[in-house]
């Protein structure tokens, strides 16, 4: 419960307590005053219950918007022309995703990729992926040097990165991905480590 909610609730409770004291102090020969005060107490009590129910409904609606209606952006695939690959993201959610930043790398490694090592590129305001829309952003190249290193060594060519975005309420979300090169395409294969592929 937020501070503003607590203040309102305490004010209503105090009002109810004050009315209860008024009833206790009333002279019982004045039955009309007693009944009037009692009705006021019932009114305050019903107001408290109505306020609580309204707040609960508002929280349920907000939770539905932030969880069920939020954007869900994922790395989808790559398209390529010769050795240049275009990265494709898709918003599978029901509301727009406001893009905040991206990390993207393609390189030969003999260790597991570390997404946080990639420099973060921030987008200007206005970069948006609509609900159900594709977003082709970012190009990488698989060089002949990478192919030679993969043929000679024990490592792999990895495509990996991260996308940060906001929902319409301003909450930040993140999706991260990693794929390995299999001579022609980038595939998910055995990359099951949650540090390499996931979302929040």
Walk me through what this model shows.
By secondary structure, the chain is of the alpha+beta class. It has two domains: 3-68; 73-199, Immunoglobulin-like, CATH 2.60.40. It is 35% helix and 34% strand. It is built from three helices and ten strands, in the order ααββββββαββββ. The chain has helices spanning 3-25, 31-68, 144-152, and strands at residues 73-81, 84-91, 97-109, 121-122, 128-129, 134-141, 156-166, 172-181, 186-187, 198-199. Strands 3, 4, 5, 7, 8, 9 and 10 form a seven-stranded antiparallel β-sheet that branches. It has a three-stranded antiparallel β-sheet with strand order 1-2-6, with no helix packed on it. A hairpin with a 2-residue loop joins strand 1 and strand 2. Helix 1 packs antiparallel against helix 2. The two termini are 24 Å apart. The model has no long low-confidence stretch (mean pLDDT 84).
Blueprint (SSEs and pairs):
Blueprint: H1 3-25, H2 31-68, E1 73-81, E2 84-91, E3 97-109, E4 121-122, E5 128-129, E6 134-141, H3 144-152, E7 156-166, E8 172-181, E9 186-187, E10 198-199
Helix pairs in contact: 1-2
């Amino acid at each position: 419960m937020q501070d503003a909610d607590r203040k309102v609730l305490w004010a209503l409770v105090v009002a109810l307590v004050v009315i209860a004291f008024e009833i206790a102090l009333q002279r019982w020969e004045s039955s009309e005053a007693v009944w009037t005060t009692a009705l006021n107490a019932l009114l305050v009590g019903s107001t408290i219950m109505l306020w609580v129910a309204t707040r609960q409904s508002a929280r349920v609606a907000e939770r539905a918007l932030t969880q069920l209606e939020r954007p869900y952006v994922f790395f989808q695939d790559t398209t390529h022309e010769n050795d240049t690959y275009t990265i494709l993201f898709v918003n599978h959610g029901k509301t727009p995703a406001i893009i905040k930043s991206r990390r993207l790398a393609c390189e030969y490694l003999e260790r597991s990729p570390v997404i946080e090592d990639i420099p973060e590129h921030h987008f200007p305001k206005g970069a948006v992926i609509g609900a159900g829309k594709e977003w082709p952003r970012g190009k990488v190249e698989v060089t002949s040097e990478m192919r030679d290193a993969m043929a000679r060594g024990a490592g792999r060519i990895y495509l990996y990165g991260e996308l940060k975005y906001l929902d319409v309420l301003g909450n930040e979300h993140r999706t991260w991905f990693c794929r390995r090169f299999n001579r022609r395409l980038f595939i998910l294969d055995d990359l099951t480590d949650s540090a390499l592929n996931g979302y929040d």
